[in-house]
Amino acid sequence: MPEYQQTVFKILTLNHIASAGLECFPRDNYQIGENIAQPDAILVRSHNMLNMDVPRTILAIGRAGAGTNNIPVKAMSERGIPVFNTPGANANAVKELVLAGLFLAARNLLPALRYVETLQGDDDTLHTLAEREKKRFSGIELPGRTLGIVGLGEIGRLVADAALKLGMKVVGYDPNITVESAWSLSSEVKKAQSIEALLRASDFITVHVPLLDATRHLINEKSISNMKRGAILLNFSRNAIVDEEAVLAGISSGKIKSYVCDFPSRKLQRHESVVTLPHLGASTLEAEQNCAVMVVNQLVDFLQNGNITNTVNFPNTSMERESSYRIAVSNENVPNIVGQISTDLAKAGLNIHNMVNKSRGEMAYTLVDVDSPVPLQLINKIASISGVLSARYVPFPTRQVN
Ligand SMILES: NC(=O)c1ccc[n+]([C@@H]2O[C@H](COP(=O)([O-])OP(=O)(O)OC[C@H]3O[C@@H](n4cnc5c(N)ncnc54)[C@H](O)[C@@H]3O)[C@@H](O)[C@H]2O)c1
Ligand SMILES: O=C(O)[C@H](O)COP(=O)(O)O
């Protein structure tokens, strides 16, 4: 029988993570820092990991936030590594900034502020100039205007609700809307049959979709041609979801009145009809705390119990602890993996106490609790089954093979 020792899990942070979250790591079992060697897990926000040599020791990545386009998810899936995120934890913060964006654009606030900054002279002069020129910044009101929302997930549905409360009409498009989102939407949100239909109907358009191959340049020259003349476009998702060149051309032709986004670029910088913010959507005290607490709790449950909640590449899989001896297996979603695991356990004389196997697309995940300690050789044998991506012993209380 192998010997065991208490594990200290090592967590590498690639961004600043709110202390409210870091405090959720059980103090004695975790070492956390930005210079940790051979980490067991990585905690990240928007740090670009795409060209990083991700340490071979890691078991999981935790994204304190929603978007995971900065993480090499496919490569991690091939290694059997779950990539966690925090659905909804920063959605209210983004919703509030989208509302600010609607008001900024509707009332021409940025050009107005820029104008005031240029004024010179005494108070009387400033007053005279302001009264004379204010007609240049006259805006529109929101009630009765139509807001088109592309993507009705955690953020899109909150924006829909807030826009209705402001008296706007709301039309939404999301071909993959979840049942939960659909239930949470007001019946006043009209369903667009296509993105083109949404663009044709909307005075304001806001996009709330993840950056994927399928959503790259979702807003492009062709889609802009479907917009109403003078539409206002908001992008708080990712810069690459919108083709900037096409938007600038749309502004020049008068098709787009203004573009409000959370992603600066050289082309957009200082453009009089563009508002760019420095990726502020999730930068509130509350959102940073929510995301950090949520992701740390998910990571701890994974590292100590093998349970998976909220990843972008694995099925949610959890099992109550009824035995101290647990095996966690990531595998390709192909036939007979569970059969081979069971056979190996039986040959080793181990009785299965409880078991769960879940799949999601090409990935599957299995938790097996057995009634007695598991020898390391058996974990290695399971890891060598064709189609198994990783196998891990997760005893309780947390211990590791010496
Ligand atoms: N600016 C910021 O700071 C900030 C903060 C949080 C999230 N985000 C970005 O916003 C994105 C959305 O966040 P969320 O929390 O709402 O995610 P979410 O996963 O809850 O919702 C995304 C929705 O988009 C839908 N969708 C996917 N492809 C689509 C398509 N082609 N057309 C229409 N709908 C489509 C999905 O079905 C889903 O309902 C994130 O992926 C991230 O990139 C930005
Ligand atoms: O996808 C997200 O959650 C947002 O873009 C927030 O990113 P941040 O955590 O780097 O602010």
Provide an overview of this structure:
This protein is of the alpha/beta class and 402 residues long. It folds into three domains: 121 residues, Rossmann fold, CATH 3.40.50.720; 151 residues, 3-Layer(aba) Sandwich (Rossmann fold); 82 residues, 2-Layer Sandwich (Alpha-Beta Plaits), CATH 3.30.70.260. It has 13 helices and 18 strands. It has a seven-stranded parallel β-sheet, sandwiched between helices. Helix 7 links the parallel strand 8 and strand 9. The longest helix has 21 residues. The mean pLDDT is 96. The structure holds nicotinamide-adenine-dinucleotide and 3-phosphoglyceric acid. The site of nicotinamide-adenine-dinucleotide has 34 residues, from helix 3 and helix 6. The site of 3-phosphoglyceric acid has 10 residues, from loops.
Task: Put the structure in a nutshell.
With 402 residues, the chain is of the alpha/beta class.
Instruction: Report the radius of gyration as a whole number of Å.
Output: 26 Å
Determine the CATH topology of the largest domain: Rossmann fold
Low-confidence stretches: none
User: Which geometry do the CA atoms define?
Assistant: elongated
- Tally the helices: 13
CATH architecture of the largest domain: 3-Layer(aba) Sandwich
Catalytic activity: (2R)-3-phosphoglycerate + NAD(+) = 3-phosphooxypyruvate + NADH + H(+); (R)-2-hydroxyglutarate + NAD(+) = 2-oxoglutarate + NADH + H(+)
EC number: 1.1.1.399, 1.1.1.95
Protein name: D-3-phosphoglycerate dehydrogenase
Keywords: Oxidoreductase
